[in-house]
Amino acid sequence: MNPRYAKAMLLLCLFATTTSAVTAHAPMPGVWQQGNLVIKGKVKDINGNPLPGVTVLVKDTKKGATTDEKGNYVLNDVKKDAVLVFQYIGFDPQEIKVEGKPSVNAVLKENQKTLDEYVVVGYGTQKKVTKTGAVSSVKGAELQQSPNVNISNSLVGRIPGIIAVNNSGEPGYDGSRIFIRGRSTLGNSAPLVVIDGFPRDGFERMNPNDIESVSILKDAAAAIYGSRAANGVILVTTKRGKGGKPTLGYGYNQSFVTPTRLPKMADAPTYARVVNEILKYGGDKPKYTEDEIKKFGDGSDPWLYPNTNWYDAAIKKISLQNRHDLSLSGGTEKMSYYVSLGSLFQDGIYKSSATNYKQQNVRANLDAVVNDYIRLRFDLAGRLENRNFPPRSAGSIFRSLMRGRPTENAIWPNGLPGPDIEYGDNPVVTGTNAIGYTNDKNYVINTNMSAVVNIPWVQGMFVDGSFAYDQNFDFVKSYIKPWTLYTLNDVNDPTHKLNAGSRGVSAPQLNESFGTLRQITYNIKLNYVRSFGKHNVSSFIAFEQATLRNDNFAASRKYFISDKLDQLSLGADKEKDNSGGGFEYARRNYFGRVSYNYNETYLFDFNMRYDGTQNFPKGRRMGLFPGASAGWVLSNEPFWKQSIRTLDYFKIRAAWGQMGNDLIDQFQYLSTYGFSGGGVMFGGDLNKGLYQLRSPNEAITWEVANNYDVGVEAKVLGDKLALEADYFMTRRSNILVARSQSMPGYTGMTLPQENIAKVQNKGFELVMSHKRDIKKFHYEVIGTVTHAQNKVLFFDETPNLPVWQQATGKQIGAPLYYQAIGIYKTQEEVDKSAHVGGARAGDVIFKDVNEDGVIDDLDRVRQDRTENPTWIFGLTVTAKFKNFDFTMLWQGATGASQYLRTESGLIGNFPMAYVQDRWTESNPNGSWPRAYDRDREYWVNRQNTFWYWNTNYARLKTLDLGYNFPSPMCKRIGLQNLRVYVSGQNLLTIDKVKIFDPEAPSGSGQYYPQTKIYNVGLNVTF
Asked: Domain coordinates of the chain in residue numbers?
């Protein structure tokens, strides 16, 4: 026998003895078939859906097959060591070694370009080419470029339609007020936030590394959320596992934080002269001699003649902020996962600061494919928000900083704290834990579970159901204790002996509160998605119900024996107190959507929501909210392709949607009662009286918003140049207001709110982008413009108001001010003009609007500007060259003004800008009025446009420069990727205000300032 055949027969015999069970049921293949297999398998996407039409090739051969409608394929006569190549449009190709296995399954991932072609909409996703509504989105990766720990501060300028105002940088309370396409109501204008399919709070505090994308629904696209969608909808989608081997990522950044702007206050010599002038105007003797003023300036006697900068004494030059993030993602054909942990710390700007914010967060998103018909999803997110403050508020601390007289010591030369400004307030101390603490721990748990069940006997039909359970536990503990400040014993004592004095409260006192908030939401949807040739249909009908319950409790005690004993049970029984309360809320909704397109050219969407809420009386609790939109992709038409070749893509679309707003006080349709503060004594008991809180309105109903939108989308040279533009208009009716303005005050009547006001809001959005590759250099430029301006169409005006004072026709919240037209240089100018009684040279001139020769309330004019900007601009520039990447975002806002007037005079200091070029007898052409004391002058106590600042600004909002280490270098040290970067936030601000930040809140400048952030960081992928 040929030795070669002998060896083959021997191997067959050995194989047969070890596989008798198999060979008993299957005939032995012939010798000519050895090494060849029949390969069967199934191809799915990462969500477990079968993929029909996938090409399966045997590498380096012409042999191949295509998957059927269930994702199955069969390949005959395949070698055991062959490699199969799976290819499908829109998905990353995948190669799998056969390795002698008769079954080879594959899970394909959509490539990034394909994912970018989709946008998240209400209760689903849509291809961007088929969307008919005004929907804008931003990737989570773009939000991560901002070192700001509050996501709300990272949206403006990146997404058209977002108008945001940031009034504070205080850790834990540093978010922006967000308006989608401006304000359209006199009431609550906050948008609805939906996280992973469920309306939830806490968007600001989400970990940006967990976010896949953020979408903004602005027109009929938002109508699917019905009664809560009139102010727009923010949809947040978190990351999910994408299959494949486990990927471990770690990110760290360290930030150095400083205020964007602090007011430069007058120095001691300047302030001393101003005080003398104020006293002179009042007929009093000067307080300071020229010799004393000189001592304030030369620093020769810091004990008695200091030159104190209170901001320098209490505020750090640099504060620290850092973040750690760890994530693990991956999966198999049956299970995918994304798990993350995060921690951040944000310090306050005070020296020895008691203010800081700490957060720990965890997330686990799991997806499981049970079989061809059932898919499951389970999400768990937890967060601990730990806010720490001194018992004095930020407003109180900054009031003291603004009022701190530079002629007094904040800190004595020996390092001890100086005296208080009033009520124990010395910000050097009140910003620290020396006066006690306030600790607010908010525990947040968000869970949701969902299942998708394919109906096998109806192609394209499936049911999905979801259940969400959200729970908050908020525990606040505020402990305030006496603190010590020091005053000079005797100004004539050369030893400068100081007296210690107890300030603040007489004895320690403790306040504690505990609140729980529980929300349960569930929904079920019947979906039908199918294509019939060029006809594509996507639809669903659904039911959803949500309940919300809150319970809270508070208690307090005083007169603790020791300030070291901060437990409630150790306080005295005298004046102890407790209280509690709670509420419940429920919603029930029926809704659905039908989307149809023909060959992705003719596009139609219709959605409807039937909403119910307990805020309205029986018979009026349900509201119907429809929405419709259509689009036409002209560039798909044969005539376009033949005649207009410069535009590669062009779409027009239009939408109308009717939405509601139920963000109002509850139970206004009922008579509500409360207990009076006092009462009647019967024996030794106090019996409180019961009184009616308000009159009911049994006809109360929804606000209704009719939204109209027309848009175009275009691309030139492929996608090198793209444009998207929208014109929109919203007419809001049934807005709740009271008729109290037309009800004479002498009647003593308070009327309930009624659905009578009307508002119109209109404007446009524009997004233009350009990108190009020049060899190894890639760049992209994106510009956004948003303009939105509202107008009150009907409001219950006081009768017979002059036209220039009416709110109707002006923006919501438009203020009423006297018109400041200059400064009197001489007394002769005062005498020749209509003026307020007692006016003198150096005062602000008020315009005699009605020209009656008298300055009175009829000369006030309604300003058509508010604190909210009407224009928002954004310019993003990104570039990549080899391993370097660069991102720069400029953001600007115009159309806003803010009323800012400091509490200055004998009571406290002035900003230097107020008094540096003030009017005096020797400086009659000064750009600022004469020195004043608090609100004693008419041009201070009567609100006027002299203090109404134009707050237009432009900011270098974000700057990011990174370096990705070369792949070979990373592989040598066991890494997939390593990136190091430097970045910044609010690095440069251009505006006319100069003294305060242009986003400062209205008032006296007594607020925690916005912050500028310098950041370094790294991202590592294992």
From this structure: 38-107, 118-247
Distance CA 217, CA 208 (A): 20
In this structure, what token pair is assigned to residue 977? Answer: 């990727």
For residue range 673-697, list pLDDT tens digits in order.
Answer: 777 766 666 666 767 777 777 778 8
**Cα distances (Å, whole numbers) of residue 840 to 13, 331, 832, 835:** 120, 79, 12, 9
Condensed to tens digits (0 to 9), the pLDDT of residues 613-649 reads 888 888 888 889 999 999 999 999 998 888 887 888 9
844 and 823 in contact (C-beta within 8 Å)? yes
H/E segment holding residue 121: strand 118-121
For the chain, helix, strand, coil in percent to 5 are 15, 50, 35
HSE-up of 248 (CA within 13 Å, CB side)?
3
Distance CA 584, CA 434 (A): 40
Contacts for 361 with CB less than 8 Å, ≥ 6 apart: 205, 206, 207, 210, 340, 341, 342, 343, 381, 382, 383, 384
527-543 confidence digits (pLDDT tens): 999 888 899 999 999 99
H or E stretch covering 327: strand 319-331
Q: How many CB atoms lie within 10 A of CB 745?
A: 7
Q: How would DSSP label each residue in 843-878?
A: SEEEP-TT-SS--SGGGEEE-S-BSS-SEEEEEEEE
Is the Cβ–Cβ distance between 426 and 485 less than 8 Å?
A: yes
**CA-CA distance, 1022 to 1018, in Å (whole number)?**
13
Helix/strand/coil for 285? coil
Q: What is the architecture of the domain spanning 118-247?
A: Beta Complex (2.170)
- The encoded tokens of residue 552 equal 């809270």
Fold of 38-107: Immunoglobulin-like (2.60.40)
Structure tokens at 802: 């002059």
3-state secondary structure of 534: coil
